[in-house]
Write a structure and sequence with these properties.
The structure holds 2 protein chains of 2 kinds.
Chain A (H helix, E strand, L loop, with lengths): L5 H5 L7 H15 L9 H15 L2 H8 L33 H4 L4 H7 L17 E7 L1 H6 L1 E8 L2 E2 L5 E2 L2 E8 L8 E4 L13 E7 L6 E3 L2 E8 L1 H6 L1 E7 L2 E7 L8 E4 L12 E7 L7 H13 L12
Parallel strand pairs in A: 1-7, 9-13
Antiparallel strand pairs in A: 2-5, 3-4, 6-7, 8-9, 10-11, 12-13
Helix pairs in contact in A: 2-3
Chain B lengths: L13 E2 L1 E2 L5 E3 H8 L3 H9 L14 E3 H17 L3 H25 L11
Antiparallel strand pairs in B: 3-4
The chains are: A alpha+beta, B mainly alpha.
Chain lengths: ~325, ~120
């Protein structure tokens, strides 16, 4: 298993005072809280920070951790020193009052140092496992049509001796049509295991960036390049939408940045979203003499036209 | 919970419940899903974090979005040791950040290519 450098994780020196540890922990907890942070590794970092704090905030655990010596590097292969009680108590001889649900949040390294044993005196309440939240990235097309996606979840198993065996499980999940960014799907009984059954799994939808479309809620935005003559004279042009190509009538006299709304052409739902099409007038490059001549004729024709009249310059 | 889709290990995959405005839960269901007590929910409503339909607490109904909010509020309170007002403020600011981020992304699309020029 990998050695964890708890001081490095919290970014404090090995001789840090307790209040220094506390403030470093608080700051990192806010930074990496999965509900606050947008960093992809936030959840993992948040767990590490919590584990480091769990050890360093407690003088006894910190002393036991320090006793491992300072020669270790983070990530180095770690074997618990022989001769300790091991197993339930960990070699530090700690009697833990963590619940199995708690310790599942911590690393194998933590368990080997501080024990996996739980006080099991008298009947334990059969607690339901923890709820799990995980992000799933889907395309806008999948959100429009609905899809079945396979997701892999970490599902560590506890061996009989109490150590944790990494394991994963796969779920095929139906994503209903019309989901939006940040929405959650609750899968009852698919979370972490516990004595009283599994908790729930919450899948949070995250849209993969799309080459053409952007979504805001159920609305879809598209920039549509058009020619100067299409803008001036009007035209009917094909426009991609999530539901397929549609014909769009560009009104005569259109300008750049003008927007058209295609009602109900956004993501589906009881109230479907709209598709917003924003014009962007594209001029053909004047790359040869005939083209330059055509532009000169235009200039001549529109001799008095000044688009900057309102700027007063 | 008003289940619009059925749960089960069908060949087409497991169907869950989409927590959107179309899903409606009672107070009791909200307590179960979020591991909250009724009094905690009342406090959250009092703080303006949750907006139930119905006047009497026993008849309150919440949308799927409120489940997401309540769970988020609870996690923020527990993990960051916030009080209720602090969690309410965090929720509002997070909502606003999310909205603004999305807005910025939209607007950035319309920023053109930049070239430095001498006047």
């Amino acid at each position: 298993m990998e050695y964890k450098d708890y001081y490095k994780i919290l970014g404090v020196p090995r001789d840090a005072k307790q209040d220094q540890i506390k403030s470093a922990y608080r700051k990192l907890a806010r930074k990496y809280h999965p509900d606050v942070s947008k960093e992809p590794q936030a959840e993992q970092r948040f767990k590490e920070v919590n584990e480091a704090n769990e050890v360093l905030k407690d003088p006894d655990k910190r002393a036991a951790y320090d006793a491992l010596g300072s020669g270790w590097q983070a990530g180095q292969d770690f074997r618990p020193p022989p001769g300790g009680p091991g197993g339930a108590g960990g070699f530090g001889g700690f009697q833990q009052d963590f619940s199995p649900e708690d310790i599942d949040q911590f690393s194998d390294f933590f368990a080997s140092v501080f024990g996996r044993g739980f006080r099991r005196e008298g009947p334990q309440p059969r607690q339901r496992g923890m709820d799990q939240t995980t992000r799933i990235q889907i395309s806008l097309e999948d959100a429009y049509q609905g899809a079945t996606r396979q997701i892999r979840l970490d599902d560590p198993r506890r061996r009989l001796d109490g150590s944790v065996e990494p394991n994963s499980r796969t779920l095929n999940v139906r994503i209903p049509a019309g989901v939006t960014q940040g929405q959650q799907i609750r899968l009852a009984g698919q979370g972490s295991p516990g004595g009283g059954g599994r908790g729930d799994l919450f899948l949070e939808i995250d849209f993969a960036p799309h080459p053409m479309f952007r979504a805001e809620g159920k609305d879809i935005y598209l920039t549509l390049p058009i020619t100067p003559w299409e803008a001036a004279l009007g035209a009917t042009v094909p426009v991609p939408t999530l539901g397929g190509t549609v014909s769009l009538r560009i009104p005569a006299g259109s300008q750049s940045n003008q927007r058209l709304r295609l009602k109900g052409r956004g993501l589906p739902g009881k109230t479907p979203g709209d598709a917003f099409v924003q014009f962007e007038i594209v001029t053909p490059p004047a790359s040869d003499e005939p083209t330059r001549e055509a532009y000169r004729q235009l200039a001549e024709h529109f001799g008095t036209f000044n688009p900057r009249a309102k700027l007063g310059a | 919970m008003t289940q619009r889709t059925s749960s089960g290990n069908a060949p087409f995959g497991i169907e869950g419940i989409l927590l959107d405005e179309g899903t409606v839960v009672s107070v009791t269901e909200l307590t179960e899903v979020c591991n909250l007590s009724v009094s905690q929910i009342k406090l959250m409503v009092g703080e303006g974090m949750l907006h139930p339909h119905g006047t009497q607490p026993e008849h309150w109904c919440f949308s799927g979005l409120e489940i997401q909010r309540a769970r988020r509020a609870l996690r923020l309170q527990q993990d960051l040791e916030l009080n209720l007002a602090g969690a309410a403020l965090a929720l509002e600011l997070l909502d606003e950040v999310e909205y603004l981020r999305n807005r910025v992304r939209l607007l950035e699309q319309h920023l053109g290519r930049l070239t430095d020029v001498e006047p």
